[in-house]
Amino acid sequence: MAKSPPESSNGSGQNCIKLSIPSRLEYLGVLDQLVQAIAEQMDFDADARDAIANSVIEAATNAVQHGHQHQSDLPVSFWFEMKGDLLDIWVHDSGPGFDLDEVTAADPTGPEGLLRSRGRGIFIMRAMMDEVEFDIRQGEGVTVHMCKQVTPPSDPGA
Amino acid sequence: MKIKQEAIGDVYVLRLSGQLMGGPDADAVRETILSALNQGYKNLLVDLKDVSWVNSTGLGILISSHITVSNNGGFLKLMRVSRRIDSIFMVTRLNTVFQVFDSEPDALASFQGDSASSPKAES
């Protein structure tokens, strides 16, 4: 089960920024600027800032294109929770959901997938973030939770 | 996203700016490439210097363009790719699909060794 966004849990959300955008690709530029600013404030390095922004844009692209089928009156919601050196992000759409296993079955970097024009979004998110989870519920939509830490966690055995 | 286009010798250069992310961008790039092919150009060069980011749909546009040009016996190459976009190419292994050049002179010169021959732009 994916972790819930701050407002639906017991957390106060005091270090949380919430954003809602219409389901239009034109707003992804605004989203990119916000994500970059949040990541910079948390002292992520340039590569990590880009990785986070790329991942949020992929999640948002999926929400707009597949979840909401470009219906601009349907909002895509984002939560950015900053806890020390950990950034938790949730992206929610109210679409019908999808079969995660089916969507991620093909390897987009393999010989058969390399020249396919689709099917890389989740792969990119998983490659660029520390964790990516999906909460897909019939009638309630899709929530993607992902997180990234400023510095890699230390070896628990150390 | 905006597209500026120019022919430099037998190379047709598309200079993209903004963000490459699908929607109308796909049609704009496809129509520009088909127009270049219809004019007889086989060597196409896409300048990404002013593209701030690309999403997976934008990658699909580049891949479709690559396939279209290849199927017409031509070459599609990229130049001046930002560190951010390059990181996506590396993760998705599209760096093994596209020839990418850091500079315009190097990119233009690279077509000299290719077998595709395009007509000079008509005056």
TrEMBL record, chain A:
Signal peptide: none annotated. Residues 21-148 form the Histidine kinase/HSP90-like ATPase domain. Keywords: ATP-binding, Kinase, Nucleotide-binding, Serine/threonine-protein kinase, Transferase. Gene3D superfamilies: Histidine kinase-like ATPase, C-terminal domain. InterPro entries: Anti-sigma-factor_SerPK, HATPase_C_sf, HATPase_dom. One of its GO terms (molecular function) is ATP binding. The keyword Kinase applies. The keyword Transferase applies. PANTHER family: ANTI-SIGMA-F FACTOR RSBW (PTHR35526:SF3), ANTI-SIGMA-F FACTOR RSBW-RELATED (PTHR35526). This is ATP-binding protein. It comes from Eiseniibacteriota bacterium. The lineage of its organism: Bacteria, Candidatus Eiseniibacteriota.
From TrEMBL, chain B:
One of its GO terms (molecular function) is anti-sigma factor antagonist activity. Residues 25-111 form the STAS domain. Belongs to the anti-sigma-factor antagonist family. This is Anti-sigma factor antagonist. The lineage of its organism: Bacteria, Candidatus Eiseniibacteriota.
